[in-house]
Amino acid sequence: MKRILSIIFVVSVLIGAVFCVPAGASYDDVMESMELYSDCVLLVSADNSEVIFAKNEGKQTPPASLTKVITAIVVLENCDDLNQIVTVSESAIKELDGTGSSLGGLQPGEQVSVYDLLCNLLLQSANEAATTLADFISGNDRAKFISMMNEVAERLGCNNSHFVNPHGLDDDDQYVTAEDMATFVKHAMTFPDFEEIFGKVTYTLKPTNLQEERIIRNTNNMMNSAYKDYYCKYVKGGKTGSTSIAGRCVVAVASNDGYNYIGVALNSTMSDVDGDGVNENGAFLDCKEMFEWAFKNIELVAISDTTRIVGQVPVKYAKTTDFLTLSPAETVYSLVPSGTDSGSLLVEPVEGTMPEFVKAPVKKGDKICRAKVLYAGKVIKEIDLVASMDVEMGIFSFFGTLVKNLVSSWPFRIAAAVIIIALIIILLRRRKKNKEKAAEKSSYRILNYNDFMKLK
Fold it and tell me: Which of 125, 144, 409, 412 is in Cβ range 3.0-4.6 Å of 65 for a Cys bridge?
């Protein structure tokens, strides 16, 4: 009974250790209330990788020109000098004939810097920039470049993505997922040159041996205030893509007040969503809605800190206490709805990790178990719970417990029973022997002196 009460007490304490958020819908409920047009969407924090919204985030789908993000990564990882001049080959352009490719107007024999080729690649999504860069980096070994693209995916743990070309034209063996796409962009943003190019609305290409300087524009209309339906002031960069099979696609980054998000929308539609007679890009609309909701409704708060007691566990052999108090191993921050007070964030132990008891001595900081933090019934974090104090061993408590455990154990009881039975048997035998000796002694004649002399 004491053991059951202890467990109930511990669970009650843990359930009571809550941090509060106003009662309301979870992020999934919010997403369901949005009118999203894309088959696959993802909104993830670029700061701590927390997922806010996700729908079909692991579904493999054609990436279209989002492929060029990976192409740019390979270039940036393998080219130390972006001012190097590259000559655009005729083959790099002709291989795109009849494909309906997005082109940047590069000409055979034109000499362009790697930096300007990257701007062509990422801003106006020029397919001939992709083939030219691939041939430059690989020494005209396209298979080698494709292998390098897939090596990047494998190294980043993006095992649900695969590439067969550097530009994104549809192919059954070329696919990505929304979650992998977010990982690619997060990695690409570690390169200052990528971040700089990615965030340009327009760029003036330097004059070449065949063309004067000219202005190119970013195809991501979320960054262009002229497109009121799409414009989002928080968006700091993005890449678009579209084919008849891939649909409309976009990956974008947005920042505000120190918060940074990556939004992905894949396989979206072009349709008249507002009845104005003009078809709208559903991928842009979805990313804009997710970004604006997040910046308005979410904030980063400490959901657990090392000073808070969130549970207890029975302790054996302790000198002065019967329970060990538990605290989070570290202060953990999470993105939760704005205006948190108390109520809906719950800390509870992970099943199978909470011990029935611990044994003294225990040092402050010793890991005891795992716990999960839940919001609206959904796990948003897992944390370690550790001892919040030192617990010394009590010698008398230790030996007293040992004696108690020994006495209450079945082997001891059996041994004790055997010893008692043996002692009873020994006592009975001794008693029997004593009786026999007494009987034997009483059978002798006792003669007095006169009788003895007569016998003599």
Answer: 125
Q: What is the DSSP letter of 175?
A: B
The last residue of one of the domains, among 205, 221, 237, is 221
Q: Is there a contact between 231 and 273 (Cβ–Cβ < 8 Å)?
A: no
Rounded CA-CA distance 262/42 in Å is 8
Q: How confident is the model at residue 439 (pLDDT cuts 50, 70, 90)?
A: low
451 occurs within a structural domain: no
**What is the structure's pLDDT at 376?**
66
Q: Is residue 151 part of a domain?
A: yes
Domain enclosing residue 96, as ranges: 53-221
Contact 51, 42 (CB under 8 A): yes
In a domain, 81, yes or no: yes
User: What total number of domains does the chain contain?
Assistant: 2
User: Hey, which residues does 369 pair with through a beta bridge?
Assistant: 385
Percent of the chain beyond pLDDT 70?
Answer: 83
DSSP state letter for 332: E
The pLDDT, as a whole number, for residue 341 is 47
pLDDT value of position 440: 64
The tokens describing 9, both together, are 């007490």
Which residues 6+ apart lie within 8 Å of 236 measured at CB? Answer: 198, 199, 223, 253, 254, 255
Helix (H, G, I), strand (E, B) or coil at 48: coil
DSSP one-letter string for 339-368? S--SSSEEEEEPTTTS-S-EES-B-TT-EE
pLDDT digits (tens, 9 = 90+) for 323-359: 999 989 988 778 877 765 444 567 788 988 999 989 8
Of 221, 240, 263, at which residue does a domain stop? Answer: 221
Residue 41: alpha-carbon gap to chain centroid: 18
pLDDT tens per residue, range 274-325:
899 999 999 999 999 999 999 999 988 877 788 888 889 998 888 788 899 9
Which CA distances in Å does 255 have to 260, 288, 293, 413, 433? 4, 12, 13, 71, 101
